Structures are given as C-alpha cells and as structure tokens.
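[09:14] KT: can someone run the structure on this one? pasting the chain below
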Amino acid sequence: MPPIDALSQDVWITGVGAYCPLGRDAESSMDRALTGDSAIGPAPAEVCQWMPHSLAALAPDLLDKTDRQAQSLDRATQLALVACDEAISRSGLLDQKADVDRDRIGVYGGIGFGGAQTVDALYTRFHEACLAQEKTGRNPTIMHPLSVPRMMANAPVAAVSMKHGLRGHGFTYSVACASSAIALGEAMRAIRHGWLDAAVVFGTEAMINPGAYMAWNALRVLAKGGQEQSAHGCRPFDRNRQGFVLGEGAACLVLERADLAQQRSAPVLAALCGYGATSDATHLTAPSQEGQERAMRHALADAGLQPSDIGYINAHGTATDAGDVIEARSIRAVFGVHADQLPVSSTKGTHGHLIGAAGALEMVLAVLALQRGQLPPTAGLADPDPDCPLRHVLNGPLKDPALRAVLSNSFAFGGSNACLIAKRIELEGR
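[09:31] RB: done, structure tokens below
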C-alpha cells in the first residue's frame, strides 16, 4: 500500500509493555529499576553444571500468562506475546471504539538469536537419542514437525501479527544487541513517511541454556561470581567490572501517527523523535568510538535537538572493559561540557543484558523515566572507573521533574550502533 502522503508525520508512543527479570509488566519493572534492586542471580543448574558460578537474569514463569496454544511456542515468542498484549492494551489502539485500519498497523520485532531454546532442545534431544538408539531402536532424526516454525527468527512477529490481526509490515531485525532499537527506529521511519499509521514494536530474547552460555563464555565477556555476590555480578562503569550477565525477557512500545493518537485521545507517553544508526566497518566485536559518536549525532540531528536538550542517557553500559570506556568517551565527545551535568546510567546492572530485547526494554525504562521525572541508577556501581568520567546516577533514583528529552544507546557486535531519542509531549486540555 502506498504512503498516504509524502509529508513527515510526528510519531507518538501510546503504550508500553514488559515481561522481564524486573517484573511482569512495565510499571513494576520501572519501580524496581528505580530502586536499583538487581534481578541477577545464579544461572540455572543445567548451565552451572558445566560452567560453575555462571549468572543469569531470569524472567518470571509464564504459565499463568499464556494460553494453551502459545505454550507450544518457543519461550522468546511467548515472552513477546505477553509484552505486546500489555502495550496494546495500555494504548487502546485495538479497542472497538478506536476504529483503526489494521492493514496499516505493522509489527516490528528485534531478536538476537531466534528460537534459542528450541534449537538447544533440538540438539540435546538428537544427542540423547543417538546415545540411546541401540536400546530403543528409535530414529534419532525424527523431530517435532513444528521445530522450524518455532525457531525461525520471525516467529514472534508472526505470532503477534496473527493474534491481533495486524496486516501491515511484519519485519524482524536480528542485529545482535541493537536488534530492537533498530526495529523501533525503522518503524518510526515507516510511520513518518506515511507507510503505516501505527506499529507494535518489540524486542524479545530467551537463551538461558547451556549451548548459548558455552558460546558466550568462549568470548570471555560474561561475568561470574559466587552466590553471595551474584546480585551485583554486573557492574557497568565500575572499576572492578568483569563483564555482563545474560538476561531474558521482552518489551514492547506502540507507536502511532500523532494525528491518529490525538483523534482517539490516546494515552500519550512521549514522542519518538530521533533515530541514528551506523556501522563501524572496523571489527567484529571491538567497539568503535567514531561509530558510536556518529550514531548519537545522527539521532540528535534527526530529532532537531541540541546536545544540551538531552536530560538523561540510558547507556548501553554492558560492564565490559573496553565497551564502557569507549561509550564514555563517545558520550563526552558528542555532549562536550554538557556531559559534566548530564545524568547517565545503565540499567543492565538490574536486568542483565537482554541482547535482542535490550534496546526495547531500555527504551521503555527511558520513556517511563521521562514520564515520571525519575532516573534509574546504575546498580552495582560502587567505585566508578576514572576512565569512564560521566555523571553517573548512583544509590537510588535521581529526580528531575524538568526532564524533557532522553537518549538510549544500543551498540552491537558486528559494529552496528543504534541511538533513539524520545521527548516529552505537552498536550493542552489533558
């Protein structure tokens, strides 16, 4: 379907949802993030059996949140369905009185490793069946007929589209840690340029299993710790940081054309107004300061804002040695003297690193910070690294009722960088 017109459209965020280590919904997740209460703990026994002292940030059990049909899907798809249900419900986008055209509502998803739980279970079953073949006589190559639909990367987007009858664009972005930030930026562009009226945009990830941990462990980027210190195993920007902690979960934001949202008196949380995406083209895993700087500058230019307009940065902040230093340098290079008074925090200290879902969850938390005028701290940050000279949010929430614009960074292996900016919307008569 062609665009309705060639004029740029303002894009508003009208609903958010989350199902993650911090909580079963967006608001309770934000409540916990503000206290700095970490959801990090020991990894499941099947992981620690092979890699002792491994840490994880687990989402709550889903049995009471999914219907019987959804329970047959991969965990990443289940998490996405729950987060999207909340965001859609909060937005009122699909209420009967909304009278929207579902042909013009898209679903955009971000995921790093599609169907990771299904894939791990498939190879585990194959291995066990091979070992037992002499006793059982069963063919080890016979697998569940829906294995591929469960593990394909676009399975969550397909499930959300089908559940809600959304027939606009259905796109999946798999760009490692920048996946769902890019999904948000590209959905914003589609609405701006008239290809869509609205979009349900989410990130989801579920790879807490032995296979995934072995792969990440080989990169030497995972934090480890005894059970007594597990809650603070991830310490972004701390002098004693030792790496990140894998988390699982999903988060969703509903984006709409501003005029559509106004017509139906939608609950507006913020405007998504800036998006910058760049490629380093330098190294597969090492971060690039130049690439990060360009992404932040592009986002500011896209939003029509100056560095001094940004009042809070939700940093990528993974607690790796090189990553935190490079991000701190890139922030200081872009924001100059404003960096001395610009609050920065990484919420990964509370919810871990959700890889493909990280950008969406951190944007949800940044938007709620904007709405509440309260900034979440970096949990576990006790001794700031002098090589990361930023205005860190420490020891609880920082109140800023005058907050007007926030930036969220997502930087990925492969050299992909994505930055998003949201700003407050003041509506007369509301």
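[09:33] KT: thanks! Residues 11-115+152-423 form a domain with the Peroxisomal Thiolase; Chain A, domain 1 fold (CATH 3.40.47.10).
[09:34] RB: yep, looked fine to me
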